[in-house]
Recover the amino acids of this structure.
């Protein structure tokens, strides 16, 4: 409408000196996290093993600092030996069920890795869907998503420690054939070679598309050529297909295969729900932070914030919908190989309470909180909702990973779970600031931008 | 039955949405309460110019949703655990997970009822006749003209004065509709 034309001639759309702020905060988190992690590794690394009654004094310390091949091999042999004895002793013992009971530094690392991979995947999803449906309203937010999705390059590097130490968390990587028919038949899929190959493929897709969309969009900043938009649109049908497959299978590989015995076909969708949810919460905070420092104050307004809030709200519901769909079918069917995963999370008080916390903290409370449009339009309330969702999303990933290593009723929490997360948060802040600083924060000559500027919620 | 032709409506016709917007702003400031704008398509921001307060409809929807959720749980509890006890696959007679799909669907259904019937009731619909329909020109409100209508029940209703006001606000044509 003619009445609501917005003048962008004075708009500050460069990250500029803000990059230094984010980088220095990130540096502090990274250093504190790393130092504390190394200190934890030396001080408490062995505690987890002792409580489980394993004879692994030396290799507990090795986890913290040195993952030498000798120590690693010992660990594998040690473990396999116990399988036989445990298996012979009593059949209901957990060794037969396809997960590793020893705590490793890789468990918290995997949680933190999945956390930031999820945000990056969500950012790529935002860009692909924007082009797929030729969205208008999100044009003024798209460059931020493009910038954040560049983090796939960093995430690819962060995958290497997992790929080099698969046996630390995935039992299928150190598994001897013949113990569990369900894992036996999965060997063709769950083996180191296939796992690494798949991750090369996932990152080829993710990095390929995130770089493609970012490059094209930045090119349009100079030429303003609408043909570039068409070209990006033409790539999206393929992109969305490959994206769906890669994210779903990455969810299977990273998190579901922690319990190699178990399976759930909807698990990839569960992982995806967390990706899109945490990304939109991250986007809301990024926009609020940028505007607080005078960036994009005219091109993004409360109408856009309300829509980002709607996405957070929608995917809070979607997460609950998928989580319950998975739960109810297994609860109703009551088949041992399907319920095992939930049994571990319901028989101890801690994980039972954790599950209830997710039902209320990850769904019921944010659902009621984010229901009103006023909450989504006001920056302070939206920020509260976004921070809360980012916190409970970590709790959700913790719930997916950690019960897999519980042998009894003890709670596995250690400070290393927080310190590794802090270090990776720091790294992610630094790289995100770097990627956002490489191009303007606004796709300023996107033909759809005027539509975003004139956008009104009905 | 020589019924006296009583004026019940003053209609002002506008050529475009922007003139209508500024006119609506003035009509609002004049303190009219029973009046409305008629446009061929949704005009964003018109509700603010008209001074329409936020609708209470969301609360009706929320109430509908909560009712549906409660009804869903109570109904299943009564049917399965009280009235006709029936053991299904060894589950407790009343178990929450099994009740969630139905309660969820009823939450949606009752929310939709709240939204749909609440909207009808608050708009005073269905209504089969309005004096506006007596105006031939008013038909263009569904095609290419914008209208402001001031109704007879407004305290400041005054056929001549209101017509002058609308003309001065840019109405290209004004008329009085009689009963």
């Amino acid at each position: 409408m003619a009445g609501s034309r917005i003048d962008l001639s004075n708009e500050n759309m460069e990250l500029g000196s803000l990059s230094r702020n984010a980088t220095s905060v990130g540096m502090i988190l990274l250093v504190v996290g790393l130092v504390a992690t190394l200190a934890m590794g030396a001080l408490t690394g062995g505690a987890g093993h002792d409580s489980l009654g394993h004879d692994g004094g030396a290799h507990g310390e090795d986890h913290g600092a040195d993952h030498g091949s000798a120590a690693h091999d010992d660990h594998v042999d040690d473990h396999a030996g116990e399988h036989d004895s445990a298996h012979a002793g009593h059949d209901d013992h957990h060794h037969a069920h396809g997960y590793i009971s020893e705590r490793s530094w890789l468990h918290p690392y995997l949680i933190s890795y999945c956390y930031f991979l999820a945000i990056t995947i969500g950012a790529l999803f935002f860009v692909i869907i924007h082009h797929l449906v030729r969205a208008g309203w999100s044009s003024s937010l798209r460059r931020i998503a493009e910038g954040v999705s560049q983090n796939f390059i960093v995430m690819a590097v962060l995958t290497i420690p997992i790929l080099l130490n698969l046996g630390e968390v995935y039992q299928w990587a150190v598994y001897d054939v013949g113990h569990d028919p369900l894992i036996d038949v999965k060997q063709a899929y769950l083996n180191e070679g296939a796992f690494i190959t798949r991750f090369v493929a996932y990152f080829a897709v993710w990095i390929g598309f995130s770089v493609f969309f970012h490059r094209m969009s930045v090119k349009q900043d100079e030429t303003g050529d609408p043909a570039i938009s068409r070209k990006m649109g033409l790539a999206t049908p393929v992109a969305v297909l490959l994206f769906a497959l890669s994210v779903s299978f990455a969810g299977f590989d990273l998190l579901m295969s922690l319990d190699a015995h178990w399976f759930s076909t909807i698990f990839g969708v569960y992982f995806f729900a967390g990706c899109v949810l945490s990304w939109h919460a991250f986007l809301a905070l990024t926009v609020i932070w940028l505007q607080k420092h005078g960036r994009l104050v005219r091109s993004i307004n409360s109408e856009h914030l309300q829509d980002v809030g709607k996405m957070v709200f929608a995917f809070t519901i979607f997460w609950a919908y998928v989580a319950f769909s998975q739960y109810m079918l297994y609860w109703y069917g009551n088949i041992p190989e399907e319920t095992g995963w939930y049994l571990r999370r319901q028989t101890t008080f801690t994980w039972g309470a954790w599950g209830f916390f997710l039902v209320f903290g990850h769904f019921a409370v944010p659902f009621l909180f984010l229901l009103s449009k006023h909450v989504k339009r006001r920056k302070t309330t939206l920020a509260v909702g976004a921070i809360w969702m980012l916190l409970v999303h970590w709790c959700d990933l913790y719930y997916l990973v950690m019960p897999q290593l519980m042998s009894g009723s003890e709670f596995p929490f250690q400070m290393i779970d927080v310190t590794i997360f802090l270090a990776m948060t720091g790294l992610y802040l630094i790289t995100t600031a770097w990627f956002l600083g490489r191009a303007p924060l606004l796709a300023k000559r996107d033909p759809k931008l005027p539509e975003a500027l004139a956008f009104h919620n009905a | 039955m020589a019924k006296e032709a009583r004026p019940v409506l003053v209609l002002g016709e506008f050529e475009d949405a922007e003139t209508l917007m500024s006119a609506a702003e003035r009509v609002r400031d004049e303190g009219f309460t029973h009046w409305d704008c008629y446009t061929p398509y949704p005009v964003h921001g018109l509700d603010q110019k008209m001074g329409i307060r936020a609708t209470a409809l969301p609360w009706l929807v929320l109430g509908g949703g909560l009712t549906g959720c409660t009804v869903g749980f109570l109904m299943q509890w009564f049917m399965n655990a009280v009235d006709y006890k029936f053991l299904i696959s060894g589950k407790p007679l009343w178990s929450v997970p099994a009740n969630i799909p139905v309660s969820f669907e009823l939450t949606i259904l009752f929310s939709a009822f709240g939204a749909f019937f609440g909207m009808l009731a608050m708009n005073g619909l269905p209504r089969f006749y309005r004096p506006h329909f007596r105006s031939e020109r008013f038909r263009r409100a569904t095609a290419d003209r914008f209208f402001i209508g001031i109704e007879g029940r407004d305290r400041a209703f005054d056929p001549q004065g209101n017509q002058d006001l609308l003309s001065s606000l840019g109405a290209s044509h004004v008329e009085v509709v009689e009963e």
Observations:
- Strands of chain B lie at 7-14, 35-38, 146-151, 173-178.
